[in-house]
Amino acid sequence: MEIQAFVKGSQIDPIFFESSYLALPEKDNPKPYVLLVKALEDSDRVGIAKVTMHQREYTVFIRPRNHGLTIHTMYFVNEIRRVEGYGKITHEIKLRPQEIKLAEQLVESLSEDFKPQQYHEAYQENLKSLIEAKRQGKTIAEEEAPKRAPVIDMMEALKRSLQQTETLKGKKPMHARSGVREREGRRRLAS
User: Fold this and answer.
1) Half-sphere exposure of 8 toward its Cβ, with a 13 Å CA cutoff?
2) How many Å separate Cα 126 from the centre of its chain?
3) What is the pLDDT along the chain (191 residues), one digit of tens a residue?
4) What pairs with residue 156 in β-bridges?
5) Which domains does the chain have, with CATH numbers?
6) SS3 label, residue 134
7) Residues 6+ away with beta carbon under 8 Å from 49
């Protein structure tokens, strides 16, 4: 492994991370490994290196994580797709302060600590259930293709979602103001 540079971790967009590998120290000489982990942790830096794996050369990130080193192979710039107009529409749309506040309230109401164990791939479980049901002679109904959602007023949708979230969490629901704004929303929805 040949280290090319050390960069601030905050400068690396996660879109550049491809595969992840956990690196362990050499059994008879762990000191260089521990020293690199400590230096990277203290400096908030990530190493960029060249490494050969599977008869191919890769550029990798060496990142400290949980007092160990995680190595991520890197996607190169030419491997990351560019889409015309991506990120440009945000400058063209004018947002009202109450829209921003409502969106922020929705985000806050659904905010929680990240617990990776609560997310899992259900494909294998569903496949096993399907096979077991077939083995027991049960008929399997095909799922309907998803239908397109109707076009709705974003403010009304945010308000409803926020009310549902607050109700589920046991908070007093925030009621939408009646009057002109509601009628305007209905008119926009109808047109």
Assistant:
1) 2
2) 23
3) 899 999 999 999 999 999 999 999 999 999 999 999 999 999 999 999 999 988 999 999 999 999 999 999 999 999 999 888 888 877 778 888 998 898 898 888 888 888 888 877 888 888 888 888 888 888 777 666 777 766 667 677 777 777 877 777 765 544 444 444 444 444 444 44
4) none
5) 2-76 (2.40.290.10), 92-111+150-185 (no CATH)
6) helix
7) 1, 2, 3, 4, 59, 60, 62
